[in-house]
Amino acid sequence: xxxxxxxxxxxxxxxxxxxxxxxxxxxxxxxxxxxxxxxxxxxxxxxxxxxxxxxxxxxxxxxxxxx
Length: 67
Fold this sequence. Notes:
mainly alpha
């Protein structure tokens, strides 16, 4: 059994290192979703019922400019 001794000066490393930002991780995730390796983890909101939205009032007709 090996023992890891942590010194107070030893920095705690992030899973992918400090030089890899969130953009890189999400880019890899996007490529995997795009290729179909994993399902899309984003939450898909439910669509509102059709016809439930009020239509905006009609605008008055534009006045024609006389030249």
